[in-house]
Amino acid sequence: MQVFRGGGLIGGSMTKRILVVEDNDLNRKLFCDVLQASGFAVEPVANGNHAIEKARIFNPNLVVMDIQLQDVSGLDLIATLKNDAQLADVPVLAVTAYAGKGDEERIRETGAEGYLSKPVSLGPFMAAVKGLVGQ
């Protein structure tokens, strides 16, 4: 079996790459651990200000984006991703702890293809991830 991180081969098929933008250490580690255990190559980003630069380098198949980041709005980052020629087609799964009435619609209007409210259950999280990366 061949194994390479970052878009290489695992068992002969291309590994899907997922950028995880989450400022909460515990949540970021949980997302990354679950995704890696499922065979995805993962790039964690704790600081939202580094997300676009990391995305350009990592070239992800999916971005998991916390909406309530401390340093920058996740909504602003989604808009920036969707207006970037290199990243515009990368699907975004938005996650937020502050899900109020109208939030999902507002988040989807920004360009997110998926939406989950925290606390995130692993079953729906993995179903959303697999749906967005075409698995």
UniProtKB/TrEMBL annotation:
Organism: Croceibacterium atlanticum
Record-level GO BP terms: phosphorelay signal transduction system
Recorded superkingdom: Bacteria
Pfam families membership: Response_reg
Keywords on record: Phosphoprotein
Gene transcribed to yield this protein: divK_2
Record's protein name: Polar-differentiation response regulator DivK
Domain Response regulatory: start-end pairs: 17-133
Residue positions where 4-aspartylphosphate is found in the record: D66
